Amino acid sequence: MPRERGQKVVATNRKARHEYTIEDTYEAGIVLQGTEVKSLREGRASLVDGYAFIDGGEMWLDAVHIPEYTEGTWNNHTPRRKRKLLLHKQEIVKISHRVKDGGYTLIPLSIYFSDGRAKVELAVAKGKREYDKRQALRERQDKREADRAMASRRHLGE
Length: 158
Fold this sequence. Notes:
The chain has four helices and seven strands, in the order βαβαβββαββα. It is α+β, with helices and mostly antiparallel strands. Strands 1-6-7-2-5-4-3 form a seven-stranded antiparallel beta sheet.
């Protein structure tokens, strides 16, 4: 029985949804060292430059920054190291076929604790072009303005 219940989000990659079109998402476990877990429990991590790749039938997470644990000793972890991801073999094969077809990349969307275990939400994503980003921003802005207009109209009607 786990000591912790529920989900606690440690870090999210908010730029990912702006930079990429998300196709599929997967939940993967991470192989961590002791001081990395303690640093994550303090809520310290950065997914900005992170990416995942498949090498030799195993999935790896690279360039994710988990800072050194402040209370750690000489056996503290290195902040940016390759970390093995835990997925079922069928999922790894399925993802590798998508990535090999071209145009797709693996990016981490968030790191969180689920029932006391560290997990990563991975996305199979395709990079957006500059005009796609501008169009998405314009649509979001238009929706916000329409909501504002509806709210002001509702208040005036009362």
